[in-house]
């Protein structure tokens, strides 16, 4: 009888951010759907009330079904029977409940039988599901693929596939191959156009495909014979009903074991081209990946939430030396920092989601009518910010989820190392978050542009100018100091005018920006709700010290020392 | 075949996770300290009704509940999960009803609804745990009843055969006593020592066990569609905009019946219609009173066994 939405008031706090009024108005096109659909909202309050009520359903299903199933799902895992992936019993129960609750096409327009919710409540649902079972969110969260179909596919394709997803069919994104992981330009799966029947056919192998046997798959394939780079790749939709793909094996993974990771063999599989040829990687996969990275941000935050809760409960109950271990400084410091990192990554998650909401909705509106110059400007502004914030979020929140899982297990002591407590599973599940959808190292590659072009500083200056209660000014002064220190460090690194040197320090600089951004976001949260004050203070103290050590490293380093690191 | 199904549901205090303040000093339930919920086994009953609706498109599921104004929540909960409409039976005249008065009032309301095939209720409510209302409703309506139902195996429309396999010559019987028989059901009952498969004619009353499948979750679209559904009393406090909305969307009106809306004998209602008298209520506090140590000695063990048999602890 648990509800993972209502038992966590911080979710509602983020749901009711002031920018939501703008996001909802844009998403609902000033509430014109209400005459066509009996479930469309009449105004802003009505829409917000609906988000909340629907998130209550998510919270209830997660508390009552998904979380209690997590352990058996982890043990049982999926299997292949007659070339079909059969989920663990608990996975199927989870999915059935979410399908019956109508939660499979949350962001899709109503004309495709979706709920037409903004990204923020969708990501919040993902946050909640991840806390219940980080492996299960992969299957459910692949509804992201539908968003890509909605963005780039033809009207005919949208009408064919989107209602199916809204009504419960699952999806997959087939990108990785044995020789094309981080480097997707090397994709080799071949797409051939048959002049006779006017259809495309796919041949080749895909590997590490989450939910590879899903009903609707987006496949990245080489459509231009003789090409070797990303410009020869196109995106296709493969429909499982074609029965032209063999599921060769399911990987035996360390964590997220309920999620089937498949190796697929395409044998003359008929497929439909999405959008334009050659745009597969350059445009569509980039959009798909950005959506997926936001999803991993949600997964990371959900994992952090569960790791923190397990640790807190254990530390309160476990007694040693005659008192609960939470009373020892070594333990309460860990817990407080865990909570601060959790709050920091969650506020970054919703800040990024709001940015994506604004620019994506403008993009959809621009297909219906010409945008006003002011709107176009805003689209560009939010898109640029989202492009900087998405890798920052994915990189930092996934690393934090690993740190929280590590510390939570540590607090459990020897018991945590046993299979008796959920933290053992959470620890294994957390590990993938900083690897897939682009490793942390690759997120840094994407985020460093935000450092060198001044993208982060621009946004930080905006935060700096926002209104604060007098008692919070002290924190802002610390953050201003950290910003000066960061700007100075960036200058020191870039003034060397050596690209490898920038790459070498990139992670340090991105993390410095991250600490400042999250410090400000927490401070602004405290402006709205006092309960974030503790986390704000702890996080800013932590970030300040972390940034100082990074700055110290950068300033006492020079180009010649780079050679030292090449001896390995 | 479109079935008309009435689900009897009750709003109850959540007695499953009770804290220290769950009972008042006088031994009655402190309703303020316990959240009001959909009685769990009534949700199992609703699921059975919804499964029939899935199986036989065109079926209609109606929720009937009796209680104070806030029990309209139960009807909304039902609508969110797939019910089509609901009736709230609410009046001071019903206050203080025991199971007899409750089942009388409910049976009168069902008579007013008049067009129904199957009535499904939860086995019992978690506040009183009597399991009496379902069977009493069946008696008052002169309907067959199947208790402890876990699964409705089959539904057959019409009168099956004169000498049907359950030993009830439906057609003859129906003719003789001018019974209204619309068809027959095969039902699995969960009993203490196993499962029993029985047949019954319908209209009938079924009461469903917690061992039956859990109710499906609330549906996101239905929640958004029906969250504005209100009873007449609730509508009174709403703005004019809301009145306009209900005019456009008649499905947002939840029927509310007072004692004047149904045909009853007032003596059978509420406190006066309730023969149950509460003699005494005790707070039971579990605590170990006396401990007894028994060695593994044969004779001492035998003594214990005899003692336990005598005081009916075992045997």
UniProtKB/TrEMBL annotation, chain A:
Residues 452-562 form the Acyl-CoA dehydrogenase C-terminal domain. One of its GO terms (molecular function) is flavin adenine dinucleotide binding. The keyword Flavoprotein applies. Pfam families: Acyl-CoA_dh_1, Acyl-CoA_dh_M, Acyl-CoA_dh_N, AcylCoA_dehyd_C. Residues 283-357, 389-444 form the Acyl-CoA dehydrogenase/oxidase C-terminal domain. Its cofactor is FAD. InterPro entries: Acyl-CoA_dehydrogenase_C, Acyl-CoA_dehydrogenase_C_sf, Acyl-CoA_DH_CS, Acyl-CoA_Oxase/DH_mid-dom, Acyl-CoA_Oxase/DH_mid-dom_sf, AcylCo_DH-like_C, AcylCo_DH/oxidase_C, AcylCoA_DH/ox_N. Belongs to the acyl-CoA dehydrogenase family. This is Acyl-CoA dehydrogenase family protein. It comes from Plebeiibacterium marinum.
TrEMBL record, chain B:
It comes from the Bacteria. Keywords: Electron transport, Transport. Residues 26-241 form the Electron transfer flavoprotein alpha/beta-subunit N-terminal domain. InterPro entries: ETF_a/b_N, ETF_b, ETF_beta_N, Rossmann-like_a/b/a_fold. GO terms for molecular function: electron transfer activity. PANTHER family: ELECTRON TRANSFER FLAVOPROTEIN BETA-SUBUNIT, PROTEIN FIXA. This is Electron transfer flavoprotein subunit beta/FixA family protein. It comes from Plebeiibacterium marinum.
């Amino acid at each position: 009888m648990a509800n993972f939405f209502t038992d966590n008031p911080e979710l509602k706090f983020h749901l009711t951010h002031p920018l939501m009024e703008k996001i909802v108005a844009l998403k609902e096109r000033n509430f014109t759907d209400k005459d066509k659909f009996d479930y469309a909202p009449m105004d802003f309050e009505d829409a917000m009330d609906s988000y909340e009520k629907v998130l209550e359903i998510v919270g209830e299903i997660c508390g009552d079904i998904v979380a209690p199933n997590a352990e058996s799902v982890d043990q049982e895992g999926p299997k292949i029977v007659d070339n079909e992936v059969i989920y663990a019993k608990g996975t199927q129960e989870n999915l059935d409940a979410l399908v019956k609750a109508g939660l499979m096409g949350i962001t899709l327009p109503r004309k495709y039988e979706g709920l037409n919710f903004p990204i923020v409540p969708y990501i919040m649902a993902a946050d909640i599901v991840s806390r219940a079972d980080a492996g299960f969110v992969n299957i459910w969260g692949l509804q992201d693929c539908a968003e890509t179909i909605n963005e780039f596919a033809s009207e005919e394709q949208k009408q064919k596939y989107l209602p199916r997803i809204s009504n419960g069919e699952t999806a997959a994104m087939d990108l990785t191959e044995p020789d094309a992981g981080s480097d997707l330009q090397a994709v080799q799966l071949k797409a051939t156009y048959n002049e006779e029947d006017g259809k495309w056919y796919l041949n080749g192998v895909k590997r590490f495909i989450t939910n590879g046997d899903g009903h609707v798959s987006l496949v990245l394939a080489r459509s231009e014979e003789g090409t070797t780079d990303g410009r020869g790749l196109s995106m296709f939709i493969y429909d499982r009903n074609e029965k032209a793909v063999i599921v060769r094996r399911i990987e035996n993974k360390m964590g997220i074991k309920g999620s089937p990771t498949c190796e697929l063999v395409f044998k003359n599989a008929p497929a439909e081209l999405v959008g334009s040829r050659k745009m597969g990687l350059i445009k569509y996969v980039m959009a798909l990946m950005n959506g997926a990275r936001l999803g991993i941000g949600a997964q990371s935050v959900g994992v952090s939430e569960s790791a923190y809760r397990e640790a807190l409960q254990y530390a309160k109950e476990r007694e040693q030396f005659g008192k609960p271990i939470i009373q020892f400084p070594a333990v309460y410091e860990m817990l407080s920092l865990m909570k601060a990192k959790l709050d920091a990554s969650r506020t970054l998650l919703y800040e990024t989601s709001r940015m994506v909401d604004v620019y994506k909705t403008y993009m959809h509106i621009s297909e219906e009518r010409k945008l006003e110059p002011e709107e176009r400007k805003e689209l560009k502004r939010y898109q640029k910010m989202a492009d900087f914030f998405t890798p920052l979020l994915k990189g930092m929140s996934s690393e934090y989820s690993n740190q929280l899982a590590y510390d939570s297990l540590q607090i459990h002591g020897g018991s945590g190392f046993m299979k008796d407590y959920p933290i053992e599973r959470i620890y294994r599940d957390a590990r993938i978050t900083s690897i897939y959808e682009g490793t942390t190292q690759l997120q840094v590659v994407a985020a460093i542009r935000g450092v060198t072009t001044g993208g982060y500083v621009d946004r930080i200056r905006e935060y700096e100018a926002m209104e604060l209660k007098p008692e919070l000014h002290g924190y802002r002064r610390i953050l201003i100091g950290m910003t000066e220190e960061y700007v100075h460090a960036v200058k020191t690194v870039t003034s060397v005018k050596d690209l490898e040197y920038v790459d070498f320090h990139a992670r340090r600089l991105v993390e410095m920006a991250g600490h400042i951004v999250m410090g400000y976001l927490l401070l602004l949260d405290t402006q709205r709700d006092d309960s974030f004050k503790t986390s704000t203070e702890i996080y800013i103290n932590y970030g300040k010290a972390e940034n100082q050590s990074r700055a110290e490293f950068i300033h006492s380093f020079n180009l010649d020392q780079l050679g030292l690191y090449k001896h390995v | 075949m479109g079935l008309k199904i009435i689900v009897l549901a009750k709003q109850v205090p959540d007695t499953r996770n009770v804290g220290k303040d769950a009972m008042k000093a006088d031994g009655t339930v402190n309703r303020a300290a316990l959240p009001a919920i959909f009685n769990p086994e009534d949700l199992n009953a609703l699921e059975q009704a919804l499964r029939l609706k899935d199986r036989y498109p065109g079926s209609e599921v109606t929720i009937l509940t009796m209680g104070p104004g806030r029990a309209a929540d139960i009807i909304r909960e039902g609508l969110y999960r797939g019910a089509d409409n609901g009736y709230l039976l609410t009046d001071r005249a019903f206050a203080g009803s025991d199971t007899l008065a409750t089942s009388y009032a409910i049976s009168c309301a069902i008579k007013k609804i008049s067009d129904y095939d199957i009535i499904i209720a939860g086995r019992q409510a978690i506040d009183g745990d009597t399991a009496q209302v379902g069977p009493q409703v069946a008696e008052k309506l002169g309907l067959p009843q199947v208790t402890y139902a876990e699964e409705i195996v089959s539904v057959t429309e019409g009168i099956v055969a004169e000498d049907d396999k359950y030993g009830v010559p439906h057609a003859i019987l129906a003719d003789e006593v001018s019974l209204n028989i619309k068809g027959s059901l095969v039902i699995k009952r969960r009993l203490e020592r196993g499962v029993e498969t029985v047949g019954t004619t319908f209209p009938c009353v079924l009461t469903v066990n917690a061992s039956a499948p859990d109710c499906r979750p609330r549906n996101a679209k239905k929640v958004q569609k029906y969250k504005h559904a209100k009873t007449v009393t609730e509508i009174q406090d709403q703005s004019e905009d809301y009145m306009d909305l209900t005019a456009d969307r008649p499905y947002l009106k939840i029927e509310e019946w007072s004692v004047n809306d149904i045909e009853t004998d007032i003596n059978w209602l509420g406190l006066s219609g309730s023969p149950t008298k509460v003699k005494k209520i005790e707070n039971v506090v579990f605590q170990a009173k006396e401990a007894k140590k028994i060695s593994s000695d044969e004779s001492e063990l035998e003594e214990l066994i005899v003692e336990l048999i005598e005081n009916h602890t075992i045997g």
